[in-house]
Amino acid sequence: MQIKHTPSHQQNIEKPENWREYPYPFVTAQVDKSLFPIAAWRECSRQALSLNAMADWTEDRMGTDDPFLVEQIRTRLLPTRGIHASEDEILVTAGAQNSLYMLARLFLNNNTLFGIENPGYPDLRNIIQMIGSRIRCLELDEYGLIPDQQLDDCNMITVTPSHQFPTTVTMPLNRRKELLEKAEHNNMVIIEDDYEPELNFQGSPTPAIKSLDQTGRVIYVGSLSKSFFPGLRLGYLVGPAHIIREARALGRLIHRHTPTNNQRTMALFLALGHHDALRKRLRKIYKSRWLEMKNALTNASLNFQYATGGSSFWVKGPDQLDSKKLLQQALNLGVVVELGSIYYSNALPKKQYFRVGYAAIEKENISEGINHLKMAIDSTLRL
Amino acid sequence: MQIKHTPSHQQNIEKPENWREYPYPFVTAQVDKSLFPIAAWRECSRQALSLNAMADWTEDRMGTDDPFLVEQIRTRLLPTRGIHASEDEILVTAGAQNSLYMLARLFLNNNTLFGIENPGYPDLRNIIQMIGSRIRCLELDEYGLIPDQQLDDCNMITVTPSHQFPTTVTMPLNRRKELLEKAEHNNMVIIEDDYEPELNFQGSPTPAIKSLDQTGRVIYVGSLSKSFFPGLRLGYLVGPAHIIREARALGRLIHRHTPTNNQRTMALFLALGHHDALRKRLRKIYKSRWLEMKNALTNASLNFQYATGGSSFWVKGPDQLDSKKLLQQALNLGVVVELGSIYYSNALPKKQYFRVGYAAIEKENISEGINHLKMAIDSTLRL
What we know:
2 copies of one chain form a homodimer. Chain A contains 11 helices and 15 strands. With about 375 residues, the first copy, chain A, is of the alpha/beta class. The first copy, chain A, is globular, with a radius of gyration of 21 Å.
């Protein structure tokens, strides 16, 4: 009896396990622990542990979510993205990864054609490859996914319009409308992975594609904890009720539901205004780091993708740079960056790209870190 | 674009949503809230929220589990089942359901033959049907699964030897050995779902099949929170390192990992001895309820499966009873029981069986509840 899948052989975003020990950790998907809202989180945990609250959440809810959390998502979070949904159109999930997994399982099989952004999110590509759906790599420009004939025949696509993952560009409203029209014309489902909508540092945020959707073909993927507590694994899906019903039934088979105590703690965190306050605080801190990053990259003459926000920069090294070699040279100088080629789904990924995050590095270390990165690039080119 | 699966149409164990409002809730998979170890759990949550502890668990661990929790499982729980495992042979999961889902996904496709106990666990059958593997319904007797030629050609089977789900019978040591030999001979993988091993009220517990396994073909499914806090969704898998590695990689795609705060709180709950104390306390309370149940069922001349423990009874009504009709009659008299036919995988399930749990009903209400159940049976037969 042989195992049928070996997902451990798939390519993933990697970082040194001891990345926190490096002086210049330009990693992504991790956060600065000093920004964790410890007092507020403790208070919400304490309240969730009160006898009254516990009576609500100690039982196995089978398939249903904490109505208190659903209400907070519905009335506090979704309106900021222009989305109006009823309770039966919302499902609490174990984060965006879990949302993407469930949608892929519900909609794809080996007869479907799934369009993914290229470059895009590797662990989504990994899911699709495991399921066996055909994949089409979709081209991007400085406004994100291009809604042209490349979408023809796709049954489903994912898109990261707030900040394209990993290039960080924002899709303008007009293009969102074009994309939606194309989807309606092609009878295609759009998964809108609304990655980092709050990290927009110039201009005002653009409404979600979901907010424009009149025909129920956009399924919205949101995160609850990514920006401050990624280990909590909480997110949500918004879509037509009949699809949410199936996603809920599938979730029941996969994991029943997300832990009831965390659902309640997060509901309190939202209801008491802590989430809002934290978002504002993080936005301010991240904006000042982001500006520092832009200056440092510009001063180091590094060629980065212009964008209005996001928690990382997508940097194009000199044409002859092999970013795989750069990674090691950078580590030698105390700098952690991420390989760019991992985000490409085609056979010949662009080797000169890499990704530089700033959510886990303090502002005062950014400029020196980028200088060290520049030195690492120079020494890689001399190899 | 059509959805490919409609898991909401699958058959499931159902109970009235307001079951707590009935005077005689003989439900299963739910617990008596008054037994929740509130002070101990609060203390562990508080400790997990200390600055030092939080530094460990606020980050996204990607694929790795809390080493503290793994160590507690390895050194406190597994030895009580005769199992010795190293750290890389253990994976923390979102409960037994999540463990079964991951194993099914790793090992099955539409060419495999999967053997399930009949009667058995409906939400496992639902997973297998969704994956599209062929299913063989396996016969049981009063010692559980029969390890004869019915296992031939099966690539993988699941078995609940501690207390067969739902009949509650315990598989004796000799049969466990026979089953393992058969599996070796057939090159078959056994999933050992070690359901309620601690709820044995007569004689001493039998070692897990996994403890006898020399060839790495048994994968052990354990639960951490089912008995006191099913909404927490925490469990674990034990198997050969190369399989655990793949299950971990699959888990990364499905949900990354279980929430880090809950992993740490549970680790403390184990390390500080609360889990042990609770288990002893529950065992004592459940034993007295179990004896009360046995007496009440005997006094009511109800024919139940003889067993040495488990948190429910498997009752065979009179041959002409339709337990679907009984359910409604029982509700009218304030009694909640569970349909038996749902556990059968074949086309003609035995209609006269039903399941009676006692984990959510207090001892003093048992006898009266069973009397009311008896009345409901009589009135169903008169319909």
